[in-house]
Design brief:
With 117 residues, the chain is mainly beta. 15% of the residues lie in helices and 38% in strands. The protein contains 2 helices and 9 strands, in the order ββαββββαβββ. It is globular and about 35 Å long.
Length: 117
């Protein structure tokens, strides 16, 4: 059984209302409702790391958070130090449409907005 944590307790990232609305919209279009939203980082990108935000299967080490009664979020414990205090937003502008991360732990960021170091 996976450990489930209420999103209001200990979630290392914050989601704006726009981000939550877009995540719900994407979730409703997702065929496999058993998947959860993975929030993480991976090596790569212009500045050293890039963000991961995708629907995926849970792995044993994940910490699982409930965003609401249907949508679950997964964050691997190794990624928490890179994400702690980050704010995830969804921009609807003409030039910038998509999810953005504001990360207080990033020493450097790049112009694409999807990588940091």
């Amino acid at each position: 059984m996976e450990p489930v944590i209420n999103i209001n307790d200990l979630l290392p990232v914050s989601l704006t209302d726009n981000a939550k609305k877009e995540i719900k919209k994407i979730y409703l279009a997702e065929e496999d409702k058993s998947k959860l939203l993975r929030i993480g980082v991976k090596s790569g990108g212009c500045a050293g790391f890039s963000y991961v935000l995708e629907f995926d299967e849970a792995v044993e080490e994940d910490k699982i958070y409930h965003m609401d009664d249907k949508i679950r979020l997964a964050i691997h414990p190794n990624h928490v130090e890179y994400l702690q205090g980050s704010v995830i937003d969804f921009q609807l502008g003409l030039n910038n449409r998509g999810f953005t991360f504001t990360n207080p732990n990033a020493d450097t960021t790049c112009g694409c907005g999807s990588s940091f170091g």
